[in-house]
Each structure stands twice: as C-alpha cells, then as structure tokens.
Amino acid sequence: MQITGASEAITEALRVIGQAQPRCGATKVVAIDGPSGAGKTDFAAALAERLPGALVLHMDDLYPGWDGLAQAVVDLHDQILAPLARGERAAYRRWDWVHDRYADRHEVPAASLLLVEGVGAGAGRNADFESVLMWLEADRDVRFRRGIVRDAQAYLPHWSRWAEQEDALFLADATRSRADLIVDTTTPLPIVGMMGGMEPADGTAADGMATDTGPMQERTGRTLDEWVDLVWHAGLDPLQQDDVRRWLKDVHGIPPDLQGTIAEAAARREGWVEQTLEDYADALYAGSKAELRPLHDGVVALAAGLGDDCAVEARSTATHVVRRTQFASVAPGPHGTLRVGFRFRAKVPADKRLSEAKAFGQSTHWVHLASDSDENDVRSLEPLLRAAYDQNG
Q1: The sheet that has 2-3: what strands, in order across it?
Q2: pLDDT tens per residue, range 166-215
Q3: Under a CB-based contact definition with an 8 Å cutoff, are residues 37 and 142 in contact?
Q4: Distance CA 189, CA 192 (A)
Q5: Sign, CA torsion 107/108/111/115
Q6: How far apart are CA 393 and CA 112, in angstroms?
Q7: Cross-strand pairs, 102
Q8: Which of 63, 111, 156, 186 has the most neighbouring CB atoms within 10 Å?
C-alpha cells in the first residue's frame, strides 16, 4: 500500500503494527527503511510517541563509517536481532562519527516493540525476524537537499558514495517490493511538527550551519544556538564532541543526525577548528613516531596517485584513501611499524606479507613496514594498492 498523507501514513502504520505478530522471540520488530533523506528518523520518532514502551534503534549508530552500510546490515542481524530471537542479551558498539571509530557499548533490552530505522533496516536476513517493513521514499533531489540541511556540509562529499551503496543494496535485496507500507515523503509530512524539518524553507542549502536553525527548532523545540547554550550550562566540555553527543542522546533523546550538528556547533563556538590533512598527520606522527612520517606520506601519495578518482580522508587514528569506497588505510602500527591496510572485496593477492586485518578502517588485510624501510619498500606495495583500488571502483 502506498500513501502520501501524514494522518493516513501514521494511522495505517499503527494499524499494520497492531495486527502484526512477534517474529523475534517475544519482540515485535518494525523496520523503517528507504533511501537517505526520506524522513525515516522523524517517522520513527512520531510512531514512538504513539506507541508507549517502544524502543527505537538507529542504524546510524551501527554503520562503521561512510563505507559501512553492508556491514551494519550484518551487525543488526548478528548482534541484535538474532540474539533477541534466541532470548539472549543483545548489544552493539556505537560508531563514533567524529573520531571514525567504535565507541561505547549499548545493550538492547528485550522489549515488546522495537522500531529499527535507517537505510538497510529491513534488508538481508533481518527480514526473518521483522514483523513489519515500512518503506519511506522521496524524489532524489529532495532527499539530497534534506541531507545537506540535516548534516550541513559534512554530508556533501559522501552523497554519491553513500547513494551507490544504497542503490546496490536495495537492488540486490528488493527491499521496497517486500514493504508492507510505502510512504512518499516528497512533500514533507507535518507530523506533530517533527517532520517539517526535512526541507529548508526556501528549498536550498546555504553554507555553514545557519540553515539548520528552523528545522532544528521544529524537530527539537530549541534553536541550534539554544542547544549550544544548553551544552555550556550543563557543564560539558564542548571540545569533547563524543561526550556531547552521548549526553544529547541519553538525556534529551536527540536523534543521531542532529547530535553531530549540535556537537560540532558547540565545539566551534569554543574555538575548535576542523583539522586539515596535515594537522591530523602531524598529531599521528608526533614524538617517537616522527620517523614513520616519510613512510606514511609515501604510501598515501602512492595510493592517491593511482587515479584521479581517489580522495584522501584524515582521521585522528588513521589516514584513509577512498575511490568509490575506502580501499587503503595508513597509521602507526605496533612496535614502531607503519600499518598499511587494504580492502579486498574479491580476490586477495598472493603476498606473504599480508595478514587479516582487525578493526582497521574498512581494511580486510594489512602489511606492517619496519621503521627503517625505504622508498623501494614503499613502492613494493603498489601491486597491493592497485588490486585494492581496482576492487573498490
């Protein structure tokens, strides 16, 4: 069934949920899926307001970075739904988008109703445990504008990259064709003021964060400036963005898409300036690790030079090189080595130096270079980098 009216959408959703039976142990799981910018977070919040006792799980907390859609679908099944179905404890590690790494662990209690919202919520083997699948959609240009308003300029460099993952997942999974309810949100659904923030008033996105003021107030009851003031009055250190995000979530129930906006605005007011690639590298290779810096620069330059479609992304823990998806990562390793990670999506090259990687960006394998390695050692990595580059195009 496909609908567009706000009242009709909520009414029909509540009816379908009410008639469904639990398929995940004693828990009735409702998946709210669809492409980015369709309004899933707000729709889930509106449903939760009308369903006392309902828990909401955001897929944004599960994605391990901008290349992590497929992994999050697997983690939802293995770490949360399957354990709940077996009557076991379910838990996941939240992804820290600010520091590009896993953060604190969250338990998911066995509730009578669990709303899972986000891209991939209804995909893969998760369908075996889900009682209801809802699909939200909107025109692509509308969704793009919403994403820019919601996440400011942080979303722009990743739009195409994320959209390609969505398209591939939905094509392979045929998620939309299995939906119990399809809601078109091209025209924003003004559900208790919660979904009015999906579009800027003039339909455009401006530079910086000022465009978020209206939607922020409509969705949370406070403007962005008021939230920043509240962070300060709460005694939090605005420069500890992860702590601010956790407080916004745990104390005020702010959804993930707005947590980052508020946390970054609070940090900027305190004087924080987003670091450059050089800044990140300087911090990574300070002190005793300085001798690894030339090796790092050589590997990154070699990887980035494989094609005009390569981009370098720096984080506090590593430097990543991205084509369509991340294919190489570089960081200080153990015992004074330089760690070089590769993401092989198909055939793994026959190289004795390779070993399976563990929790290093999106890498599947890695190599460690000794600190006394030279330019020839760096160049010897080119076949491995080329293979990873070719498999992530």
Answers
A1: 2-3, 181-184, 132-137, 28-33, 113-117, 55-58
A2: 999 999 999 999 999 999 887 755 543 333 333 333 333 333 333 334 56
A3: yes
A4: 9
A5: positive
A6: 43
A7: 95
A8: 63
Question: What residues form DSSP beta bridges with 365?
Answer: 342, 356
* Cα dist from 86 to 55, 111, 151, whole Å: 19, 14, 37
74-87 confidence digits (pLDDT tens):
999 999 999 999 99
- Hey, where are the domains in the chain? 2-205, 219-274, 277-391
Taking phi over 0 as left and psi of -120 to 50 as alpha, with beta for the rest, 53 belongs to left
Residues β-bridged to residue 29: 114
Lowest mean pLDDT among 119-133, 263-277, 292-306, 323-337: 263-277
Q: Give the distance, in angstroms, between the CA of residue 163 and the centroid of all CA atoms in the same chain.
A: 12
Which runs of consecutive H residues, i.e. helices, occur in 20-158?
Answer: 40-50, 69-75, 82-85, 140-151
- CA dihedral (226, 117, 165, 357) in degrees, to 10, reads 90
Tens-place pLDDT, residues 331-376: 999 999 999 999 998 899 999 999 999 878 789 999 999 999 999 9
Measure the CA–CA gap between 183 and 189, rounded to whole angstroms: 10
Does the pLDDT of residue 157 top 60, yes or no?
A: yes
- Residue 318 pLDDT > 50, yes or no? yes
- Give bridge partners of residue 132 from the DSSP assignment: 30
CA 28 to chain CA mean position, Å:
25
Chain position carrying tokens 């823990």: 317
Residue 57 to residue 55: CA distance in whole angstroms: 7
Listing DSSP states for 291-351 in one string gives: GGHHHHHHHHHHHHTT-TT-EEEE-SS-EEEESSSEEEEEEE-GGGPEEEEE--SSPPP--
